[in-house]
Design goal:
Blueprint lengths: L8 E5 L6 H10 L4 E3 L3 E2 L14 E2 L2 H10 L5 E4 L4 E4 L2 H9 L3 E4 L3 H11 L2 E6 L3 H11 L5 H16 L7 E4 L5 H15 L4
Parallel strand pairs: 1-7, 1-8, 2-7, 3-4, 8-9
Antiparallel strand pairs: 3-6, 5-6
Helix pairs in contact: 1-7
């Protein structure tokens, strides 16, 4: 694991419901040299998900071995789900060897690691307004309990008020304006010297 001399890693982060997946998919659909970082998880695959494309699905024991041997250099554990997620170095190193621009959807811990080791440009997506953000979160899971909603809002507030300040760029991803957000990301990458 070592820093590289060319810009290849981009972090796309933001609170749940900020549109990270939509933005990432829009970048990938544009073609070019983009690839998505495939992270590891201990959860079971959902219908339609493919191992190696959506996630690297591994057992808890295999995940823990990865933490020890360094193939998973950072992780987070979701206690309510009993699930681990983490950056999977074999996937990242493969994409880098192919000279791809790797789009990584990670949290603040992953962003710090990728910035330090790979010189990643870090981009944080902000919703246009608190009301729009609340509506998005509720729409993603209409059956969410009031306690879960309150907890998601608490975590999102920390991410937006505190973590977002550590990112190189903060951009707004307003409803109906995804293309504008994508164009802003592309402009940032060109300015930062990525070969798109």
């Amino acid at each position: 694991m070592k820093a590289i001399d060319r810009k290849q890693v981009v972090v796309i982060a933001g609170p749940s419901g900020s549109g990270k997946n939509a933005l990432l998919q829009a970048l990938l659909k544009r073609g070019g040299n983009y690839a998505r970082l495939v992270t590891a998880t201990t959860r079971h695959s959902r219908e339609g998900e493919k191992n190696g494309e959506d996630y690297i699905f591994i057992s808890v024991d295999a995940f823990r071995r990865g933490l020890i041997d360094g193939t998973i250099p950072e992780h987070r554990f979701i206690p309510t789900l009993g699930t681990y997620y983490g950056i999977y170095l074999p996937n990242l190193e493969k994409q880098l060897a192919e000279r791809r621009i790797v789009l990584a959807q990670v949290d603040i811990i992953g962003a710090r690691l990728l910035k330090r080791l790979y010189g990643a440009t870090t981009i944080f997506l902000m919703p246009a307004s608190p009301q729009e953000f609340e509506r998005r979160v509720r729409a993603r899971n209409p059956n969410m309990s009031p306690d879960e909603f309150k907890e998601r809002m608490r975590i999102a507030k920390i991410e937006m008020d505190e973590h977002s300040k550590e990112f190189d760029c903060r951009i707004q991803n307003a409803d109906g304006k995804l293309e504008e957000a994508v164009n802003e990301v592309v402009a940032i990458l060109k300015k930062e010297g990525y070969t798109l």
